[in-house]
Amino acid sequence: MTLDEAQRLASRLRDELGRAIIGQHAVVQEILTAFFAGGHCLLRGVPGLAKTLLIKTLAQAIHLKFSRIQFTPDLMPSDIIGTEVIEEDRGTGRRSIRFIPGPVFANVILADEINRTPPKTQAALLEAMQEYQVTVNGVRYELQRPLFVLATQNPIEQEGTYPLPEAQLDRFMFNVVIDYPSAAEEHRILASTTGGDEPAIAPVAAAADVEAMRQLVRDIPAASNVIDYALRIVRASRPAGAAADGAPAPVRQWVKWGAGPRAGQALVLGAKARALLDGRSVAAPDDVRAVAPPVLRHRILLNFQAEADGIDADHIVARLLETVPVR
Length: 327
Fold this sequence. Notes:
- With about 325 residues, this protein is α/β, with parallel strands linked by helices.
- It has 14 helices and 11 strands.
- The protein is about 45% helix and about 15% strand.
């Protein structure tokens, strides 16, 4: 796949998503960036903002298998991975064990309200995301590729939830925040979704095209100053210790733990994917700045002082981008 072919594919994909999704251009851009970079997304937003429709439309536009998992407190790992059943041949009476794949055997997976299920089930999904395989009774089963997991969290209700620990949050490349639409966009939503016509989504790519795009992302060069810029942002997010490098005052005051090396990888890959989506052959420092909020907001652990002062991770990321210069 060439750069021009990749740009045309990305343009057609945006057009198809725009048939079903009104507005939310920044959210669509961030999800496509993570998708073509080979990462997974954590999507945070209140109910009713078309999170399910967005990920389902993405699967339709690329002709991929879509699976939706509603996470509940009684969901077990076997409910998402799959289970083995004993079957008996009525003619011979012979019994055999057959594996029935779960919903994780798909290309695009919506993990709805992942913080509603216990850690054991959360870990089963995250293992599948990282290893692209599941193990049942010592037998490994390969997952289909491409694999893209979009997990949602409801920020309103926190009672009876199991928040993902920081080590598991780090497995998600992006943490995307979806907000309410504008007045004009909401007017279009009300007008278009209360009639009898539904938008027809046409597939514009196949799984092989996605894999080719992901390989092309890794082939895009990133100059040493781009990698150095991503490195210095990550190291500046650490308040103290040998791994810290010139942490600014807001980090030393409000941050308990900074981002790890996986954040630097996500910054560089995200910058490359963003450049590819824009039709550019080289990643730039501005691409690193653009992907810094979704990459870092779930990887920076704030202290009690930040909570008391009303400071969130986005504020810290903004201060980092202000204080860390591009060389």
